[in-house]
Automatic annotation (TrEMBL):
Domain of life the protein comes from: Bacteria
Annotated InterPro entries: Acyl_CoA_acyltransferase (IPR016181), GNAT_dom (IPR000182), N-acetyltransferase (IPR051531)
Species: Undibacterium rivi
Protein name stated in the entry: GNAT family N-acetyltransferase
Domain N-acetyltransferase: residue ranges: 27-175
Length: 199
């Protein structure tokens, strides 16, 4: 995606998925230094300064067309980030990518991420022409794998001890969702608007 392309905004009934900007640094640091958020997330930061690397990465994947990462806000509070979601490892020739997500614990269990990921998946399958979305989740993180199962992702298998975590190796559950499965889903998604407006 070139620098001239407007960053894609996505609107759901309750939320706005928007570009993550420099002013979000403190909020991203607060999330990515909270052990409740990062326990199964894989990335965490100890200082505000180090967290800048995450914002740089959001910019890099967008500019190189290898991913898009959105900040999640309530529609009436667009400055106030409550979490993030996005895709990386976007292979434009193979039309596949990997999804990731987190929100602050005070918003857990209220259907926020289900609504936001529904919108993100819809955008990726319809506007980006993705064919396959993948997600890797630790077995001890049912909040995540039940969320993606509810969205229609299918378990492909377990990657045994494929990730180093402290002094041990952990398994990862490998999930995928194909475009045709998304199109043929039985559960309706929230009404979604894609707003190709730059911020
Ligand atoms: C995973 C996470 C994003 C879920 O977000 P959320 O907004 O709380 O999820 P939702 O409320 O939309 O839940 C949707 C579905 O997911 C499942 N789910 C969510 N939280 C769950 C929990 N604690 N236990 C079991 N299932 C859960 C349920 O099936 C739920 O549907 P239901 O409410 O109809 O039963 C959130 O827990 C989080 O940010 N965790 C920390 C970061 C993280 O682990 N990221 C993923 C790394 S792979």
């Amino acid at each position: 995606m070139s620098e001239k392309s407007p960053f894609p905004l996505i609107q759901t009934p309750q939320f706005l998925l928007r570009k993550i900007v420099a002013d979000d640094l403190c909020t991203i640091f607060r999330g990515m230094s909270d052990p409740r958020v990062t326990e199964y997330y894989g990335i965490s930061y100890e200082t505000l300064e180090l967290t800048q690397a995450q914002l740089d990465w959001f910019e890099l994947i967008y500019e190189t067309g290898t991913g898009i990462w959105w900040g999640i806000c309530h529609r009436d509070e667009p400055q106030h980030l409550i979490g993030t979601c996005g895709i990386n490892e976007w292979e434009q020739d193979d039309h596949c990518a990997e999804a990731g997500f987190w929100i602050f614990p005070e918003y857990w269990g209220k259907g926020v991420m289900h609504e936001c990921l529904s919108a993100m998946l819809d955008y990726c399958f319809t506007k980006l022409s993705l064919h396959r979305m993948q997600s890797m989740v630790e077995p001890d993180n049912p909040a995540s794998w039940k969320l993606i199962e509810k969205l229609g992702f299918q378990l492909e298998g377990i990657l045994r001890e494929c990730e180093r975590k402290g002094d041990r190796y952990v398994d990862l559950r490998c999930y995928s969702l194909l475009a045709r499965e998304w199109r043929n889903r039985t559960q309706p998604s929230a009404t979604i608007m894609h707003l190709p407006t730059s911020t």
